[in-house]
Amino acid sequence: MARGNAVHAAIELVGNDMLVHGEATPIDIADTQLEECMEAEFAAVEVWRDDRFKVEAITRLNFEAWYWEVLPNLEVPTSVEGPFRVLLDEDEERRIWLTGTMDWVQSDRIIDWKNPSKPYARWEKQRWDNQSTVYSYAVASETGDWSPKKFDLCMLCNGDVHWVHITRDEADWAALRDKCRALADLVAAPLKVWPQAWNSWYCSPKWCTAWDTCRGQFYPKGEPW
Ligand code: SF4
Fold first, then answer.
1. Which terminus of the chain is more exposed, N or C, with fewer CB under 10 A?
2. Which ranges in the chain are annotated with CATH 3.90.320.10?
3. DSSP E strand boundaries for the chain
4. Residue-level pLDDT at 128
5. pTM more than 0.85
6. Secondary structure class of 37 (helix, strand, coil)
7. Is the CB of 219 under 6 A from ligand 1?
């Protein structure tokens, strides 16, 4: 988390410079900004789940890769870390709003920065990624332009750059609306329990704060894999 947050924060500063001045921050200043972002982010870490020096090294590698390999191919953004709140659905009883913050938007696409340990598979993201559907819907809704939208995941992995390019259109947004209606019904239902979701890296004693009282109660010796 801290690694990704620091890289995000440094990219945001460069992007804001581009918004104001029309050009990117020089590398020496950008590097200084990265160090300040790292200091601020890492000071807030309570438990290091990875070696701190390794995290610092990868953070620097990822930002350098972004600066030299990604930035030269970007347009001046139209927004950086821009918040949105758009209406997805409404009936007589309820409204469903989508909210979030987009890392980077430019004239031809939305871009989201990721710092995973290994690249994602494109087919998985195209098939079930929610973020791309929500963000592209928000852009279409805000601009009134309902043509297909491009959403790019830019993955910075140990100093290497990988891309997943996703396209979303009206069929995806209609399916999202249907999915969220069902989810809203579930939230409104007087359920005593919720289905457990195991199919994520998050479902582990390392990351989930509810592990001990949820799935983890059946594995008293710790992580079972
Ligand atoms: S352990 Fe956490 S992530 Fe896994 S099912 Fe329970 S609440 Fe969800």
1. C
2. 79-188
3. 79-90, 95-106, 109-114, 149-157, 160-168
4. 92
5. yes
6. helix
7. no
